[in-house]
Amino acid sequence: MRHLIAAILVGTALVAGAQTLSAHHAGTMFDEEQTKELTGTIKEFQFTNPHSWIQVIVESKPGEAPKEWSIEWGSPNQLARQGVRPTTFKAGSKVTIKVHPMRDGSPAGSFVAAKFEDGTNIGRWE
Amino acid sequence: MRVFSAAVLVTLLAASAARAQTVGGLPDWSGVWQMVGGTVFDRATQAGQGGALSHGVRERPPYNAEWEKRYQRNLKLRDEDHLPDPINTCGTPAGFPRIFNVPDTLEFVVRPEQTWILTENGPNVVRFYTDGRQHPAPEDRWPTYTGDSVGHWEGDTLVVDTVSIRNSNYPEAGDTVLDRTGLILSDAAHIVTRIRKTPDDMIEVRLTIEDPKALTMPWNVTKTFRRMPKGTRVYDYACAENNRNPVDAATGRTLILGPDGKPLGVQK
Q1: Are strands B114-119 and B124-129 parallel, antiparallel or unpaired?
Q2: N or C end of chain B: which has fewer CB within 10 A?
Q3: What is the extent of the structural domain holding B255?
Q4: pLDDT, tens digit, for every residue of B25-71?
Q5: Is B235 within a domain?
Q6: Is the peptide bond preceding residue B212 cis, with omega within 30 degrees of 0?
Q7: Has residue B17 been placed in a domain?
Q8: HSE of A1 in the Cβ direction (CA atoms, 13 Å)?
């Protein structure tokens, strides 16, 4: 597992630089100058083409209902070569995820990094 | 004599091993390959910093005034984030010559009668016929995304002649581009492609593009491909599987669909 996470870490750093060339679409709806941290529970990991999506139920302020976020990631072929698997984000697991959020404030963003409860992380956590 | 025999034996074994990997004495391009560099089609003439989507980046094909104007229209749309990539429909092929400008993996399947290029992204396939056939007569062919390609071998180099690609007045519906800067060609384009494996184990693709409608002189572009690690697997790229990024026909912008399948917000 440690090797897998290390592979993902290195691989994601490589892919991050190549994101715009390999993405299915322009990433202009995401604000790459902003990074937002979300804490919540994985609802579903859609390991699908042309993009993977991480659906997270994000905890809100007291008194507010939790909100579902859609977080876009790479295509399975690219992610698989970096060690990502359909089981990388398990439904029900607690996670903190960094995203570049949508410019219009919608509950969506592009994936930057994630940290699990056991301290392991994926992507450019820093 | 014994030394001589050993040398002959080694040579014969080596030749035998080479034959085992190829068909009909053709070069061995097996394995999985990946384009070097980003998806700016003609990196040699690139102006501006960044990739094909970066504002201000453009290339310098020898366009005539009319097609330079068309390219500038596309560049302006790209700079406004209003130039959707036609392949985002998850239906139309990358086409020719964009087949040499896609990310992810490529495979070259070499047979005496035909060579195929298979790309993971798309996926796309093009066929280069080398069985001696000629292009169909003009009245028997029509513009397609991949065009019509016939080729022959000159030593270890595959020489391919391509015609009948689609005229592009992109972003009109059904038209296509060579890259995400909005680079386009007309249906009069005639492309000669020379493909070989270089001594440093790269696949080199040299394109000479003539286009009497769009270009004032031949446009030469070279693309190179590096070998991916042995054992690399090629996966599905079923673009329509879960495309949550349809293009908004009214604005040309890419949308993001939320978990309920409805667009999230409206892009400004």
Answers
A1: antiparallel
A2: N
A3: 244-268
A4: 899 999 999 999 999 999 999 999 999 999 999 999 999 999 999 99
A5: no
A6: no
A7: no
A8: 7
Q: How many domains does chain A fold into?
A: 1
> pTM higher than 0.95 for the full model?
no
- Going from the C-alpha of B108 to that of each of B91, B97, B133, B158, the distances in angstroms are 23, 15, 20, 11
What is the pLDDT, as a whole number, of residue B146?
A: 94
Tell me how far apart the alpha carbons of residues B124 and B146 are, in angstroms, rounded to a whole number: 9
CB within 8 Å: B267 and A51: no
By C-alpha distance, which of A90, A69, A72, A85 is closest to A11?
A85
Reported ipTM: the value is: 0.80
| Contacts B50 to A, Cβ<8 Å | 20
Is-contact B187 B164, C-beta < 8 A? yes
Indicate yes or no: CB of A68 within 8 angstroms of CB of B239. no
**Cis? peptide before A107, omega within 30° of 0:** no
Three-state DSSP class for residue A2: helix
Are A4 and A116 in contact, with CB atoms under 8 Å apart? no
Q: By the CB < 8 Å criterion, does B72 face chain A? A: no
Radius of gyration of chain A (CA): 14
Which residues does residue A42 pair with via DSSP β-bridges, in sequence order? Answer: A56
Residue B249 and residue B215 share a domain: no
Closest CA to A53 of B125, B242, B78: B242
| Spatial distance between the Cα atoms of A112 and A96, rounded to a whole number of angstroms | 11
**B231 has pLDDT over 70:** yes
Q: For the purposes of burial, counting CB atoms within 10 Å of the CB of A104, is it exposed (0-12), middle (13-18) or buried (19 or more)?
A: middle
Tell me how many domains chain B contains. Answer: 2
A53, B244: Cβ pair inside 8 Å?
yes
